[in-house]
Design a protein that fits this description.
Layout lengths: L1 H18 L24 H6 L3 E14 L20 E13 L9 E11 L8 E13 L4 E8 L17 H6 L9 E9 L4 E9 L6 H7 L13 E10 L9 E10 L17 E14 L9 E10 L7 E12 L9 E11 L1 H9 L7 E14 L2 E11 L12 E12 L1
Antiparallel strand pairs: 1-2, 1-16, 2-3, 3-4, 4-5, 5-6, 6-7, 7-8, 8-9, 9-10, 10-11, 11-12, 12-13, 13-14, 14-15, 15-16
């Protein structure tokens, strides 16, 4: 028995060593090394960790298809949204870290990441193969300050936008110029920790193209270019409070942020005049654990609720307001302690200047879009997750539409594999 305990402790210690080599400074990260298909097969992680090297890889494969209206037709000549025709995508990523703490740099770490993506509907992509991150991280003043610099993907650093359960709110932030997996940009992030729950994070980031993420990726598919046409600087600041759930202490997550961008955006109110500057975005979001599992050591299991509100000036942004309500559960069933499910309702309000311009051209246009999504994610095995969901969307297109695109009922099937 003592031998069994000793082996178990060695297993825990080994994965704890791997945990220390995960990417640092990100608000959102994927499953840890113990929850991968390879774990430590052939001692590969152990051998690399001896040299201070860690890695995390994953592949996300998604299929979406509309089930109502024009779904009876085999293909739509001019697809306008994901799922209008059967839509498949694959996103494949690899992150490698190198530990600099061994050289006396507090929490020091170098991160290099690459990403490949492919879409059957190119407007949702486009396809690319390039970097996802090249960064340097360290802490200062006994971890009061965290510094991260390089080609960053702030999608994982701000607003919880990397969390899948939170719907499409990240589009508002990408519209404002925030970098992401598909489009990393040069940035300097500084985080000040008031304590282990409350912090303020500031980013000085090269903006995405003001013409949109599709244009940005098309102009810079590898992600290595310093800038793209008309792109300026995005300043982001966020205040966040988050406590880790412990028995009888539910999780609370509050964040509020603002971004200012001096890129050359088109003035939607006066589109024939020279481009305008000084775009901005504002957001608040909150999540709370309402019920906690009574199982010892499983404080994160339970039922959660939350909301997000975002605003961007309608004269510079096609999406001007975003509202989201969410209810989700982690490990609701004792027989499935690592599964998740969610119900998300969101509403996007389009720029009234863009809508009025479309109506003036005698186009069909709507002022908002509402979606209701139900998703279930099953943890099938270490490192393997499958998500099945159904989303009803009233007005699935952006602003303009045709009589055939009044609403959609998209079925989604997605598989994530981590290694």
């Amino acid at each position: 028995m003592d031998t069994a305990k000793s082996r178990s402790q060695k297993q825990i210690d080994r994965f704890a060593k791997f945990e220390k080599l995960r990417e640092k400074g990100a608000a959102f990260t994927g499953p840890g090394p113990a929850d991968t298909i390879g774990q430590d097969t052939a001692s590969v992680r152990s051998e690399l960790s001896d040299f201070g090297i860690g890695f995390a890889g994953w592949t996300l494969n998604t299929f979406v298809n509309n089930q109502v209206g024009n779904a009876t037709r085999s293909t739509i000549a001019n697809q306008q949204y994901v799922g209008q025709n059967p839509t498949f995508s694959t996103v494949n990523s690899m992150i490698v870290t190198y530990d600099l703490a061994r050289f006396g740099i507090p929490d020091g770490q170098i991160v290099v990441g690459s990403e490949h993506q492919y879409w059957t509907w190119k407007s949702a992509g486009p396809d690319r193969l390039g970097i996802s991150a090249v960064s340097y991280y360290q802490t200062l003043f006994e971890r009061k300050i965290e510094l991260k610099v390089g080609y960053l993907r702030n999608q994982h650093e701000f607003a919880g936008a990397g969390e899948k359960v939170f719907g499409p709110s990240s589009k508002m932030l990408f519209q404002a110029g925030m970098s992401n997996n598909w489009a990393p940009t040069p940035a300097l992030n500084l985080k000040y920790n008031f304590d282990d729950r409350l912090y303020n994070k500031l980013s000085i980031q090269r903006s995405l193209s003001p013409a949109g993420q599709y244009t940005h990726v098309s102009e810079n598919p590898t992600g290595l270019n310093w800038s793209t046409r008309d792109a300026g600087i995005l300043l982001l600041d966020e205040v966040c409070y988050k406590n880790k759930p412990t028995p009888d202490v539910p999780e609370t997550w509050l964040r509020a942020g603002v971004g200012f961008n001096n890129s050359s955006y088109t003035d939607l109110q006066h589109p024939t005049q020279p481009t305008a500057k000084a775009n901005s975005v504002y957001y608040v979001a909150a999540d709370r654990q309402f019920w906690q599992s009574a199982v010892h050591g499983s404080a994160s299991r339970g039922i959660y609720g939350g909301f997000s509100v975002m605003y961007a000036p309608p004269d510079l942004n096609r999406a001007s307001q975003y509202y989201e309500l969410r209810l989700y559960a982690k490990g609701l069933f004792d027989s499935r302690p690592t599964d998740q499910m969610s119900l998300v309702v969101n509403n996007t309000i389009w720029s009234h200047f863009a809508v009025d311009a479309a109506l003036a051209k005698e186009q069909l246009a709507h002022r908002d879009s509402t979606a209701i999504s139900g998703l279930y994610t099953a943890h099938l095995a270490p490192g393997i997750y499958t998500t099945v969901g159904l989303t009803y969307i009233n007005h699935p297109t952006s602003i303009t539409y045709t009589p055939q695109t009044g609403h959609a009922l998209n079925i989604l099937v997605s598989t994530s594999v981590f290694f």
